[in-house]
Amino acid sequence: MTSATTAIDLTGRVALVAGATRGAGRGIAVELGAAGAVVYVTGRTTADSPSPMRRPETIEETARLIAEAGGTGIAVRVDHNEPGQVRALVERIDHEYGRLDVLVNDIWGGDPLTEWGVPFWKHDLGNGLRMLRNAIDTHIITAWYAAPLLTRAPGGLVVEVTDGVGDGYRGSLFYDLVKASVIRLARAQAEELRPYGAAAVAVTPGFLRSEAVLDHFGVTADTWRDAIAKDPHFAASETPRYIGRGIAHLAADPDRMSLTGTATTSWDLAKRYGFTDVDGTTPDWGRHARENL
Questions:
Q1: What's the pLDDT at 204?
Q2: Domain ranges of the chain
Q3: Band of the pLDDT at 5, cuts 50, 70, 90?
Q4: Which terminus of the chain has a lower count of CB atoms within 10 Å, N or C?
Q5: Residues whose CB is less than 8 angstroms from the CB of residue 22 and which lie 6 or more positions away in sequence, other chains included
Q6: What angle do CA 19, 20, 24 make, to 5 degrees?
Q7: Which residues lie closer than 8 Å to 153 by C-beta, 6 or more apart?
Q8: Would you call 175 a catalytic residue per the annotation?
């Protein structure tokens, strides 16, 4: 069993992780870079320009973490709601490398907008519609501009990052619609990418130890186990690098087309490819949820 992406080689590949400032996007970008890919990392939060998320993480930090992992990270500030900015980004990738092998759509920014525990007609309508715009329209805009470059040669991969792959309700109409729509996007893209030898897959992490979640529990990446006393289910959580390793392995898999059009999970990718999380564990949120929730 391998514990990192050292068993795979993405040297010569070019990836775009849209929404790589923090969380799963950052973990994915770092692992793609660690495997040898050149990774463009985009988001709205830079050292000089904070985003409405009001979080301290920046795309420059993500690029630095990629460099520390031995890879090449290129930070570009992009608001993926703005077609002109996305077009300029893809044109830059084409000019600098002439190819795009992996597109990861992880644009979100909807957590502060989600109102839990209220019926949809009491949810702020403006915030609900912004969630749809932030996490569905942005994915479509980015894929629309990236697809011509991605399909220039066979072997491309689009990853749509979601939350959950089952049919269960996710607790908020707007949140549920966003995450279910992202899965459908992957399935629809798969059909239209197939003739070009490119795959599209939706992937979900489990209980993610993102920066915001760690802050919520008042712990750090090193002291995260202290939060188990507050929420026992946190024992089954995973780092953002876990889904990152799964997607890096998927990108390197010559048989990736067997998964095109499907929705899969970080833990199922771990079983398929035999990797572990950064601490050597193999979290399985699906099994934990079935047995305990």
A1: 97
A2: 5-292
A3: very low
A4: C
A5: 43, 55, 57, 62, 210, 211, 212
A6: 95
A7: 99
A8: yes
